[in-house]
Amino acid sequence: MSEKNREGKRTARQKLAAEREKQKSRDKRRRALIVGASVVGVLGLAAVVGVIAANTGKDDSEASGPVVAPSGAQGKDSLAIPVGKESAKSTLVIWEDFRCPACQAFELAYRDTIHELTDAGQLKVEYHLATIIDGNMGGTGSRKAANAAACAQDTGKFPAYHDVLFTNQPPEPDDAYADEGKLIDLAGKVDGLDTAAFQQCVKNGTHNSWVEKSNEAFRTGGFSGTPTVLLDGKNIYQDRSMTPAKLKQLVEDANK
């Protein structure tokens, strides 16, 4: 084989080797691009999943709406609904849940005495609303009933509607107060309460966030359950000797 032919074959092999190296480089760059794009896609998906997970884990307070206290609410964060004269020398603080059977039992036993003392200007009552039965039994009746009661407070009808709700309280496992129609029907038992404004307040859940804030105050307040009844700071519900007559005597003595 001539020198010229050998040189030609050597050049051809070199060109082929060079072309192979170029192809390898192109393949390497292509694989890098594919891997890079895959990484970006995975990271993007992770970011989306992270946002979804973060949003799922958050308490979506905006969805509940702003905290709107009922008209005339008093105390810290405006969580107390007052009944009675400011000048009264004794204050009764009551934490209640409209689905709570023990609360109903307390109300049926003591309400006449409490009304008598508030009407006489001797006692001021601060009602605080909780929703522990919703948490324990499930449902939304405690919250919706509390919202409806706050709506009644807006029109000055809280005491009467409060009594109607406890008088007509469904059995504890029955979440009947989750039905806004029932809450509106019960408003018909209170003169002047069943108005378009009241119905809208109930249906819109105007005070739902306020109710939730009140329940959070109960939950973090160190209370053992509902009802919690404090006369001038003393828990009288835990006093086994307490009766409506004894409550009346305590209040009258404080007003002497």
TrEMBL record:
InterPro entries: Thioredoxin-like_fold (IPR012336), Thioredoxin-like_sf (IPR036249). The chain crosses the membrane at residues 32-54. Residues 83-253 form the Thioredoxin-like fold domain. Residues 1-28, 58-78 are annotated as: Disordered. Keywords: Disulfide bond, Membrane, Oxidoreductase, Redox-active center, Signal, Transmembrane, Transmembrane helix. It comes from the Bacteria. Gene3D superfamilies: Glutaredoxin. The keyword Ribosomal protein does not apply. Residues 1-24 have a biased composition (Basic and acidic residues). PANTHER family: DISULFIDE BOND FORMATION PROTEIN D, GLUTATHIONE S-TRANSFERASE KAPPA. Belongs to the thioredoxin family. DsbA subfamily. This is Thioredoxin domain-containing protein. It comes from Streptomyces vinaceusdrappus.
